[in-house]
UniProtKB/TrEMBL annotation:
GO terms for biological process: monocarboxylic acid metabolic process. PROSITE patterns: ADH_SHORT. NCBIfam families: PRK07326.1. Gene3D superfamilies: NAD(P)-binding Rossmann-like Domain. This is SDR family oxidoreductase. Belongs to the short-chain dehydrogenases/reductases (SDR) family. It comes from the Bacteria. It comes from Neolewinella litorea.
Amino acid sequence: MKDLKQKTAYVTGGSKGIGYGIAEKLMENGVNVVITSRSQDAATEAADRLNALGHPGRCVGTEADVRSLKSQQKAVALARDTFGGLDIVVANAGVGHFAPVQELTEEQWNETIDINLTGTFLTVKASIDELIKSKGYLFTIASLAGTNFFASGSAYNASKFGVVGFTQAVMLDVRKQEVKVSTIMPGSVATHFNGNEPDESDAWKIQIEDLGQLVIDLLKMPARTLPSKVEVRPAVPQ
């Protein structure tokens, strides 16, 4: 997409963290954005902050749950009807529970899989017809944990390994319909993930605006070229 002005994006989990950073960069490049949160108040507050950056009316925040197809369909319809189409989808919403398997609860397992993996599927299911119409771009946010397993990561690893495999299969399903699909696999990111509050000690980590810029760079790749799986990590680990 050489010209992003007046394109429309849908970003799940866009009220904070990676989703917010991506939404902000999209808007800086002229894209209209619908962001979601499980809280309408959080979605509205984030949208107000994004609009206040000099882009009035270009961001809408709405309550939506990635675990519900009906909820995702409603949010996708809002993006389409508000801005006249849908060109970019970022399946970003995620959660993490980390514990040795003998301590991991069934509820923690189910929530991790339901939000990270099934939620990605339902976001794609709700939006793929619109992306086929627009010959758009789908991004899923996986993790380096989608190829690198670690202790206490059984649920998170399972979900992110699944997101990577799911996304690559979707890429093959729709590439002949001229829909681009990429999964982005970040390492350590300075975010509010699992309640953490980023501060100066996180300066060495990937910043949310860095991932936003990565999305912009991928969107502007030549049409003939598709980076279908992108690993990204801090340049200098701590």
